UniProtKB/TrEMBL annotation:
It comes from the Bacteria. One of its GO terms (biological process) is regulation of DNA-templated transcription. One of its GO terms (molecular function) is DNA binding. Residues 17-45 form the HTH merR-type domain. PROSITE patterns: HTH_MERR_1 (PS00552), HTH_MERR_2 (PS50937). This is HTH merR-type domain-containing protein. Pfam families: MerR.
Length: 45
């Protein structure tokens, strides 16, 4: 789980973007699963 929530303006800042690998490590979800979620439209960005 992510440690804190961030506001929309802060989230939209490209400096705060995570790579797929970074997101996988932070969430415990595999890169393969994240890519699947993106493919079927469950993720945005």
């Amino acid at each position: 789980m992510l440690e804190q929530s961030i506001g929309c303006e802060e989230w939209m800042n490209k400096e705060n973007y995570l790579t797929t690998g970074q997101l996988a490590k932070r969430t415990g979800i595999t890169v393969r699963t994240l890519r699947y979620y993106d493919k079927v439209g469950l993720m945005f960005g």
